[in-house]
Amino acid sequence: MVRRAGPLRARSRRSPAVLAAFALLVAASSACVPLFVPPLPSDRLEPEPAFRLHGDARLEPAPGDDAGLVLVMRAAEVPAGGWLAVQWFGPSGPARASESVWFEPGSVGAEVRLETPPGLDVTPGEWRAVLSWDGRLVRQLRIELD
Q1: What is the per-residue DSSP string for the chain?
Q2: Confidence of residue 46 (pLDDT cuts 50, 70, 90)
Q3: Is the distance from CB of 81 to CB of 102 less than 8 angstroms?
Q4: How far apart are the first and last CA of the chain?
Q5: In a domain, 32, yes or no
Q6: Which of 20-34, 44-58, 61-75, 119-133 comes out lowest in average pLDDT?
Q7: CATH code: domain of residue 139
Q8: 65 in a structural domain
């Protein structure tokens, strides 16, 4: 004998305890306020001042019969007086010379030209100048000499 299920209404009835629990869950969840942690602290973060160069800094061959290089640069930001260290790297790889240039906050925007040290044999190949301020890399410039 096959037993038939009762009408749809009879099957869909739930016990009063289940309905009460569901109503309580809906009421409780609507009162929840989601936790929100702001991505930044309430006080504004200020970037640390750093030495920056304008984008037109470059290496170029020295004018005339000089067999040297000239580093041409302009400071965009100088946080305080300090030394900009320049290391010259020749085609063979290791550092060939190093120099330093003093910058003051008032020297922002002024063009500075720094030539390779006298007596440095500038041979054909790729030359690089690595500039650092207070131990941090500022920029690396390169030029290919024929």
Answers
A1: -PPPP--HHHHT---HHHHHHHHHHHHHHHT-------SS-SSPP-PPP--EE-TT-EEEEPSTT---EEEEEEEEE-SSSEEEEEEEE-TTSSEEEEEEEEE-GGGTT-EEEEEPPTT----SEEEEEEEEETTEEEEEEEEEE-
A2: confident
A3: yes
A4: 102
A5: no
A6: 20-34
A7: 2.60.40.1930
A8: yes
Q: Is residue 23 part of a domain?
A: no
18 falls within a domain: no
Residues in the chain: 146
Cβ pair 59, 71 in contact under 8 A: yes
Please check whether residue 53 is in contact with residue 139, taking contact to mean a CB–CB distance below 8 angstroms. Answer: yes
The tokens describing 58, both together, are 């470059």
Q: Which residues sit opposite 114 in a β-bridge?
A: 71
Q: Which two tokens stand for residue 56?
A: 């037109």
pLDDT tens-digit map of 16-36: 888 888 888 887 776 666 666
Q: How many domains does the chain have?
A: 1
Residue-range definition of the domain harbouring residue 60? 52-145
